[in-house]
Structure prediction request, 690 residues.
Amino acid sequence: MTLFSTRDETEVSTTTEPALGGAPAGDGGNRAASGEGLTVRGLHKVLGGRTIIDNLDLQVNEGELVSLLGPSGCGKTTTLRMIAGFLDPDGGSIQVNGREVSHLGAEKRPSAMVFQNYALWPHMTVFKNVAFPLKLRKRPKKEIEERVDAVLELVNLLHHKQSRPARISGGEQQRVALARALVQEPQLLLLDEPLSNLDAKLRVKVREDIRGIQQRLGITTVIVTHDQEEAMSISDRIAVMNAGKIEQFSTPADLYARPRTEFVATFVGSLNRFEGSYRDGRISDGSDVVGVRPEDVKFSREPVPGSLPAVVERVVPRGHFQELFLRREDALLRSFASGESPAVGEAGHALITRAMTFRGDQRVDADQPVNGGQA
Amino acid sequence: MTVTLPERTADAGTTSVRKRRTFRPVGFLLALPPVLLILVFVGFPIVLALGFSLGFTGGLNHTVAIIGQNVHESTSGFGTLAAYQEVFSNQRFLTDLGVTVLVTVLATVLVISLALGIGLFLKLRGGRIARLLSGLAIVPLFIPVVISSWAILTFYSGDGFMRSFFAHLGVEFPVWSFTMVAVIIGSVWTSLPFATLMITSGLQAVPDAMIEAARDAGAGFVRIVLSVIVPMAFIPIIIATTFTAIGVVGSFTVPYFLGPNSPNMLGVDMSNYFSSFNQPQQSVVMAFAVFVIASGLAALYVWANFRSAKEQGKA
Prediction:
């Protein structure tokens, strides 16, 4: 891979089969079998007597963008730092394109990292920041200039070549950090919460930039984030982490539609959560946990089969849709509705089109939509 | 209501401007005491001393000119450089000036190297030994210079610990008491705490991510230190360097206790010329020579601060 070549976007894995800690089926699986991309096996880390990473397996195929998504303290950054070589694992193996790297220091690994706070050296210009890795590799001056110019053009920052980091905006600094990583032509690109210091609008733009560049260059990429929307919008696959383990590793659509655990269902997307059981469109007493996505709750003025009478308790405008709080005899349900908004206090009917049941955190229901609801 | 509101706002605006105007002299008055203190107790004596060194022996310099020996008086209103010519043609002074510069450079290099070593050890490795070393480097701060000078004197004297210890091993250790080596050791001892505190805190302030980014780019230890840590802790290092050098160049107690009769540092010379030799004018000329060296170091400090401000986009 060089900076000057581009890659067919169709190579990106589009599998919908959930795969826990393993390679997805199809093309991606074949590439994984050939040992390309990142392979993590049995990664283990104990810090201060507490197990931070517990026997973690992860397969990222070549050219794939995978997000490590989870709440604070779940071990996602620790995992990334072990992959980058900043932290020694207590056990396990890390392979990049089939080569074991866990015994190598960060400076010897074929990976490059983009840090949360950009970590641009303030005493160097943008050019010098980006040229630094090439200088260390003792590349000829002309080659350094050409490669730095090419990568700065890629991130659209050529005009800031001679600026100091303090003189450019947060979004531009983030792109310089990305350029500094890309100029190394790494086999593996690691990004640690790369967008968390940017404002909401800029975050969307920079994440699209990152995704676009990653797809053009076809770099195997791992991103750490706690923002599920961010992970959903740019990842080929997402590894949802909790307490040092990967709870589920699958495509964004599959994670949302078919979460395997209550944790994943709650963490990815919104969820109406009830303790009880679900039968015939109704929530009743029980010892399980029932989860209903707000978009799977439909409000109508006229009764439909399976619906129960409901009163609109609250309407929260959310821009292009409304969030309704519907009081039924069995539960208070949140529902996402578009179109004309019902009035507070209006009586109607609420239908649950699809529900998930969890027992001991594991999904136990048959994964079938009811009453024609969409998955 | 709608009519009066803007008027009120306008009034409030005028009042705040008026208030700001009245506050300006008040602020100046508040800053006046320290300014006056420096002008009267530092600035004025400097001007008097400069006048005295140029042969202006009247006024407040009259008494010291009468008591002192070998005083060069100005016969014109422009002053005379006779005292400067005398001092700068004195071989002993020139040797002592050379010794002062040499001791200052060597002691400063040693102090900064030690402080940097401890600081880097603490920053990059950490651990108990690093914390112990940085703690030990502060100890001289709590021991009076006179006491530590005596301790160094007896430690390296003819019948001191080092000689006795090495004699047991059959090695003849040199006598360093009353030599410039002892002066350098003493200078390092007294200057190390401040430099260590300054540099250690400066290095600790370099974010770990900056170092990790350099490692990630492929930099080894030396490259990380030279290209990232030292430039990023440049200001604290320059402050420690200039303050150490200024402290050593004008030191008296350490060279007075530990150094030989001659050559010795200018601090001892100034004292000798002022009191023992009763030549206050020559003493003042030497003081101005030291002042010029210290001013050069101060200029370096100012330049470093300016450079840093420029880097951070503030200048």
